[in-house]
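About this split. The held-out portion is used to measure sequence recovery: a designer receives only the structure tokens and must propose an amino acid at every position. Recovery is the fraction of positions where the proposal matches the reference. Here is one held-out target exactly as it appears in the evaluation file.
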């Protein structure tokens, strides 16, 4: 679709030449002989870009600019001026103009500025569209869980999202604390700012302060250039500190100051940097117990714990397992381009009986691996049993509880022997007293992951 341009100039020759030039480049061009006509056209229709003379009789280019931006802030305005009024053109940019041209201007320069402005606008629109997609994907309505316990957490999170209050998410590893933090961010007034996540437990103590607050060149061995920290990267957005209970005491002091004063210095620097961020933190530790052990500062705890949200372990809301499992199945079936549509009743019963020490993350990993192994349209028990990293006795107990068929049990036993043999099929055949083809038949539909030299 052609971009629509409005050329405004009281110089008939300039207007004619410019409109012809732009039409030759494929633009849909409309002309106005003065500011008054331009304002009338702007009120009647939308233009992607307005190219307007700055100095005109009666209605000036600044009035055209003001009208264009009032009617549609997305309209791009480029001012055209003589050398004597460059300062006025700069003022126009401060008022919302995208750029300016000085007369006489070359054709190449004019076309370049028009195309550059339109290209930037297209990038901005695409960025806005992607932000909307991301925000929608992290809306509270898309969070999975219908149980009373998890819905209560979602309701509280939605209430605090619209504020700028500091939030502390409590819960075991794998319960979805970061997903909840993202939902809070993307449903907050800071949704158009960055969401920056830091796993404090995954960063060495000696590097954590630099990672959070940045460092200056030469601050320590290996600091060959200045580096901004996560607080700077999260400006105007949300900083998510995961595993905040693992932050060393020395760094806790500096973090406390940031929360109190909203300012900090980079490691090795003297410049005080102001910061405007919302902090959401999370931990799987008992911070009160750490306070008693003098491993966590009491004053920092109260700064972080303004609004605590306890995310329950999956075993405490097992009624959400079927919803979550089906959600993950749809996700990975689509990603793998497989026609898998459901989980069998026996397999679902197995999922419901599991205690999920790894919580939602463990369930997602399990379903993903099952989807990889499944060759049909239904996830069945055999796709789940072999994936659970448990002792054989526990697996057999699970198998007994499910009243598996003889074929399923022989498949399971063959897999156990293969695992014990380190994936060596030759050794598994020896223990089971089977030939290679029979072993392959028993393992049909299962992931053999055998060593290449075992055949």
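Reference sequence for scoring:
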């Amino acid at each position: 679709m052609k971009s629509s341009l409005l050329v405004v100039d009281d110089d008939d020759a300039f207007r004619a030449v410019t409109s012809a030039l732009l039409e030759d480049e494929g633009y849909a061009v409309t002309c106005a002989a003065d500011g008054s006509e331009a304002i009338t056209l702007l009120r009647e229709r939308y233009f992607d870009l307005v190219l307007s003379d700055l100095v005109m009789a009666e209605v000036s280019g600044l009035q055209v600019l003001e009208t264009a931006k009032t009617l549609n802030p997305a309209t791009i305005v480029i001012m055209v001026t003589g050398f004597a009024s460059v300062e006025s053109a700069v003022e126009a940019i401060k008022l919302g103009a995208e750029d300016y041209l000085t007369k006489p201007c070359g054709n190449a320069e004019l076309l370049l500025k028009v195309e550059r402005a339109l290209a930037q606008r297209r990038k901005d629109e695409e960025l806005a569209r992607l932000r909307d997609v991301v925000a929608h994907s992290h809306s509270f309505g898309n969070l999975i869980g219908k149980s009373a316990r998890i819905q209560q957490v979602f309701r509280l999170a939605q209430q605090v999202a619209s504020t700028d209050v500091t939030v502390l998410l409590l819960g075991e590893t794998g319960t979805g604390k970061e997903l909840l933090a993202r939902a809070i961010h993307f449903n907050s007034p800071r949704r158009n700012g960055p969401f920056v996540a830091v796993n404090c437990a995954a960063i060495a103590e000696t590097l954590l302060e630099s990672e959070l607050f940045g460092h200056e060149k030469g601050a320590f061995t290996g600091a060959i250039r200045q580096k901004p920290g996560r607080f700077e990267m999260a400006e105007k957005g949300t900083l998510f500190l995961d595993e905040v209970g693992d932050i060393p005491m020395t760094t806790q002091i500096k973090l406390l100051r940031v929360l109190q004063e909203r300012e900090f210095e980079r490691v090795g620097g003297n410049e005080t940097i102001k910061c405007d961020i919302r902090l959401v933190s999370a931990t799987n530790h008992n911070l009160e117990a750490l306070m008693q052990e003098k491993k966590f500062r009491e004053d920092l705890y109260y700064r972080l714990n303004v609004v605590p949200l306890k995310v329950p372990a999956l075993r405490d809301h097992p009624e959400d397992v079927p919803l979550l499992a089906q959600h993950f199945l749809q996700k990975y079936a689509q990603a793998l381009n497989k026609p898998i549509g459901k989980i069998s009743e026996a397999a679902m019963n197995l999922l419901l009986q599991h205690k999920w020490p790894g919580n939602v993350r463990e369930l997602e990993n399990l379903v993903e691996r099952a989807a990889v192994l499944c060759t049909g349209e239904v996830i069945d028990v055999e796709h789940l049993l072999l994936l659970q990293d448990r002792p054989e006795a526990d697996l057999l107990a699970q198998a007994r509880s499910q009243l598996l068929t003889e074929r399923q049990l022989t498949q399971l036993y063959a897999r156990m022997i293969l695992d014990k043999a380190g994936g060596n099929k030759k050794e598994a055949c020896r223990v089971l007293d089977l030939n290679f083809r029979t072993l392959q038949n028993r393992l049909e539909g299962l992931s053999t992951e055998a060593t290449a030299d075992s055949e």
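Annotator remark: The first strand starts at residue 4 and ends at 8.
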